[in-house]
Design brief:
Four copies of one chain form a homotetramer. With about 140 residues, chain A is of the alpha+beta class. Chain A is built from three helices and seven strands.
Chain lengths: ~140, ~140, ~140, ~140
């Protein structure tokens, strides 16, 4: 499996009047985790789109364990557990500054050829970069 | 079970460069479905908070069947299938203007007493209003 | 001048921990005002884009008079004061349910030809529709 | 005057179907500039709120010079030009990775005592920290 880490700082605009991060903004944090995960691997999501491949989301799941609060510098641990084919699943664990696991999520995406609009295999370079992690 | 309907118009700021509604903004649409569902029942979410009860989210699931696009007037069908106790689950089905089911979601929330911060039973009036739908 | 009205309901996710609508979300409300203004005139923004014309924003100004709060059904009064040329300015006034003016904004946009990426005149139909209001 | 710098990475969810950052999300970038500016000075915005002082926004202005695009690592230069009293003005300049100035903004905020809800002087420590920059 492939595991990576990044951080995200909670913005004021992401809190709600309960004083916590609004439940709908975690998907943005997943995106940060996913995108930095790909960048660290060596193929940015932007580069992927430039190669003519998009990654729309098929399914998303979230588990809210404890609230994230304003200005917290959250650690996002992003994991690709299974070797991706036409579909790829990312799992996320969010930790607050005290090191407490506060949130879990997972997102299933599908590689889509921009021109045909149809599901496709990821670019060869992506397989090559991931290969060492799935032996 | 209790079923209600409302509508939401897709905003430009909710689309992304793929030309679809960004996957993270559906949670906002669920909120619209949930809030209007409670208003139609007779107890607005705002009134609930004024009674000293909050409804933070515990779990959320989303299934993206087909993309929503800019300016679509989406129909949101919101369902409470099981009689709520300390927890309440809302299910959502989103239909585009052509009547096609494009999205399914569900959110599990918990009634929390604002003062104690602890899970609690919903206010009695909520039970009374829901009762006819769970005979 | 051309004046139109619409409404927008404040969403929970639009509030912040101050208990008010986050200052950054008013631009979304302006968009609602602007888009419904054009729809009521007879040419939706979506139709405009389908004709090959985009309307990117050049300038934006906001004046926060009093806070908007959760679940408020805001009235948005949108005004086009000057006959638009290559540029078009929309002004907004937001009123809360008590009828109090709580916010003022204005947005300057430019008609851009999608193909050339250059500023252009609005489609003829737009001029025709606006003409009665600028005699 | 007091000048500071920080960076923000454009998220996918912040783009719209024009392929640019949606005009409404720049206010979030201003917030990042403002908050990091205060943190670098030595008094975080969070600490300010913990001292019982809020900073709601009174006015906001934006000038869109060139679009920001997905995944750009924007440089935000934040300036406090005038010594703040009860009100404080922040100015922002956004540069893309090519070093081009793409956006200018300014935000006027007011110090408000949380308890009384009335405008107030900033905490003494804030004046002390800013003093060297306004001699």
């Amino acid at each position: 499996m492939y595991v990576s880490q990044t951080q995200v700082r909670v913005r004021y605009g992401e809190t709600d009047q309960m004083g916590y991060v609004y439940y709908g903004f975690y998907a943005m944090y997943y995106e940060v985790g996913r995108v930095e995960s790909m960048r660290q691997l060596g193929l940015s999501y932007k580069a992927l789109e430039d190669m003519g491949v998009m990654l729309p989301v098929l399914e998303n799941k979230s588990k809210y364990i404890a609230p994230a609060v304003y200005d917290d510098l959250l650690k996002i641990v992003t994991t690709i557990r299974e070797k991706p084919g036409v579909r790829i699943k990312f799992e996320y664990e969010l930790f607050n500054e005290a090191g407490k696991l506060i949130h879990q999520g997972e997102t299933l995406l599908v590689f889509v050829d921009k021109k045909s609009g149809k599901p496709c295999r990821p670019p060869h370079v992506f397989d090559v970069l991931l290969e060492p992690f799935f032996k």
